[in-house]
Design brief:
alpha/beta; 34 strands; disordered N terminus; 25% strand; 8-stranded parallel β-sheet; 11-stranded parallel β-sheet
């Protein structure tokens, strides 16, 4: 049995899904040899390598674009090897679910030199790269227009929806970047954007996250043309505004159209930014319709005392409305091919053992956190990938009794954290302790609300149950004797997974196994989101995709108490002193009693919510779980 070692807490708590990049060594198992783009036009569904020296599938990006099948059944990546690619490119609307990845923006450059006055082509034909397709990602590239100071000359023309640009450079002069499209949502993360006049312009909803915006002349940075009905336009967060040394007078923006929306949040502004901040493009009426705002501006140009009177300063509460979730929620699709948020996510680390203990020790000074300690009688097998989601892998860790002579019952264990935070490591001490008692235990990673909303987590956990059954022989598991346990949000998930078997809850799977379990252990997990005892609000809304008023059917569907076709199972309820964490329990027990299905309740009267994490209640919790499962499972 393979034994792996526990990764550091830093690894688990500080990851960026959007920053997980493939390398050229990770090209799918496809032979790399020159291909004929004419013969293969619109047929390729596998990853592609572009290399000017002939070592890839194609020598130009344009050839690769011609070869990609439209409306791909699965995502693919076009790996672009270093070089200066002088190409004028159009990615048409039917091209979707493709990542275009260079080695780094310093040596992987897409360039052209058209400009508006050339043959009277006009601004919108001057692009170096035009992006009309949806669900596309661009990494480690420079996109430039080298026409010079000759008027409008676009480097990037982007109108598709769900576009992500990461670690890219956009170099030009006037009109460098046309970020447009009324229904277009675009994310620019860790990018470098250079220009002179109106060099970020258009109608898109675009978020610029941790970008450097560099001005090469006294002029204007943005020229938004946000439609009246669009809630957000251009949003700059944690960016830095810089300029050439001779540049002294730059405005944050002027309205290309009357309902322009542009907001700068926590942005460092150099002394080239004028005190008044904004310009009305000589249209006083536009002052009544535009929305130009700032929050937390700093640096020499960040002094707001002399800003124009028709601009706005956001309060801290108002600035919360510019969270990435809110900006990109939109009225259309918000997820990618795999059901994840298409703009990526930052793993939430607010719920962890150290912080939980610091909070709870104030009211319970006697408590000590239970730390992970390996056991000589337990085999640890970690890092098993049970589900692949493109570049994202979901993993579980298995703990087995070393001296087991017969097949053993198994427990799938689900961590808590308000559906948005937490880590499977929180379950490991209990998993090891239960393995010492003869159970095979598995702690499971699942997608949290910053990455994917309900029901993704339910689908994930059910897949973990199926995976464990498929691999039962490796771990000595009796597949007819599988239970599921969870704490806090994990308790709610465990109950829902254990009590459902219909298609809406199962998700898609290629594994030939059932997700059914024989028993449920719920430690302080709610059974009804809408209930007199329930206090679920914002955190639940983030997971469920809206408030109860907005999505009542989803709130009820995620509540074990309100299931329309429940598959009742014996349940052990272990509770803290707080009624809100067992909302719906008593009504569910009544339903179980009607069906003659066993249940138990144990309450620790003076205990914090995450009692299972602390020494005072750990052994008692362990004993309750073991005693209950001895009654239900054949151990």
């Amino acid at each position: 049995m393979k034994i792996s070692y526990r990764k550091s807490a830093f690894y688990h708590l500080v990851i960026w899904v959007l920053a997980v990049s493939n390398s050229f060594a990770q090209v799918s198992d496809v032979e790399i040899k020159p291909l004929d783009s004419e013969k293969l036009k619109g047929k390729i569904e596998h990853d592609i390598v572009v290399a000017q020296d002939g070592s890839g599938h194609f020598e130009t990006i344009g050839e690769a674009l011609d070869a990609i099948r439209v409306y791909l059944p699965e995502p693919l990546t076009v790996y672009i090897k270093p070089g200066v690619y002088k190409e004028k490119l159009v990615i048409l609307g039917p091209v979707t679910n493709v990542t275009f990845e260079g080695e780094n923006p310093e040596n992987t450059i897409i360039t052209f030199d058209d400009f508006a006055a050339k043959d009277n082509m006009g601004t919108f034909e001057t692009y170096t790269l035009k992006v009309l397709g949806n669900s596309l990602t661009f990494k480690n590239l420079t996109i430039e227009n080298t026409a010079g100071n000759v008027g409008q000359a676009v480097a990037l023309h982007a109108e598709g929806d769900r576009l992500v640009f990461e670690n890219c450079r956009f170099l030009g002069n006037q009109d460098t970047m046309f970020a447009s499209g009324e229904n277009s949502r675009q994310l620019y993360r860790n990018c470098y954007i250079v220009g002179t006049t109106d060099f970020i312009f258009g109608s898109a909803t675009a978020l610029f996250d941790n970008c450097v915006i560099h001005s090469k002349s006294d002029s204007y940075i943005t020229a938004a043309s946000t439609p009246e009905w669009v809630e957000y336009g251009y949003v700059f967060k944690d960016c830095k505004l810089t300029a050439d040394s001779e540049v002294k007078k730059v405005y944050l923006g002027r309205p290309w159209r009357d309902f322009a929306k542009t907001v700068f949040i926590n942005t460092e502004m150099g002394d080239h930014i004028v005190p008044e901040g904004w310009h009305n493009w000589s249209r006083e009426n536009a002052e009544k319709t535009v929305f130009y705002a700032e929050s937390g501006s700093y640096g020499p140009g960040g002094n707001i005392d002399r800003r124009v009177g028709w601009s706005h300063q956001l309060t801290a509460e108002q600035a919360k409305d510019y969270h990435i979730y809110e900006v990109f929620e939109g009225k259309t699709k918000t997820v990618d091919f795999y059901g994840n948020r298409w703009y990526g996510y930052q793993k939430e680390g607010s719920y962890n053992l150290e912080d939980a203990w610091k909070k709870d020790v104030r009211n319970f000074p006697q408590i000590k956190p239970v730390e992970i300690k390996s056991s000589e009688s337990v085999t640890e097998s970690k890092g098993h990938v049970y589900k692949n989601l493109g570049s994202r892998e979901l993993k579980l860790d298995v703990f087995s009794p070393i001296r087991a002579e017969t097949l053993r019952p198994a427990i799938v264990m689900i961590h808590g954290g308000g559906w948005k935070s937490g880590d499977k490591e929180l379950q490991i001490p209990m998993a090891i302790a239960l393995a010492e008692k003869g159970y095979v235990t598995a702690v499971v990673e699942y997608r949290l609300s910053p990455e994917a909303q309900y029901p993704a987590a339910i689908h994930d956990v059910k897949e973990a149950v199926r995976w464990l059954k498929v691999h039962a022989n490796e771990f000595g598991i009796d597949t007819s004797q599988v239970a599921i346990s969870g704490s806090s949000a994990g308790g709610q998930i465990a109950a829902l997974v254990g009590m459902t078997n219909t298609a809406a809850y199962e998700g898609n799977s290629e594994l030939n196994a059932s997700s059914e379990v024989k028993a449920i252990v719920d430690m302080d997990g709610v059974l009804a989101f809408r209930h007199p005892e329930s206090a679920e609000g914002q955190v639940a809304s983030e997971w469920l995709g809206g408030t109860y008023a907005q999505k009542p059917e989803v709130w009820d569907a995620a509540s074990p108490l309100y299931l329309k076709s429940p598959a009742y199972k014996p349940i052990l309820f272990i509770q803290s002193q707080y009624p809100r964490f067992h909302a719906g329990r008593d009504e569910l027990i009544a339903l179980l009693n009607e069906k003659g299905i066993y249940s138990e309740v144990h309450t620790f009267p003076e205990s914090p919510h995450p009692f299972w994490l602390y020494d005072v209640w750990f052994e008692k919790t362990l004993a309750h779980i073991d005693d209950f499962l001895l009654k239900i499972l054949q151990k």
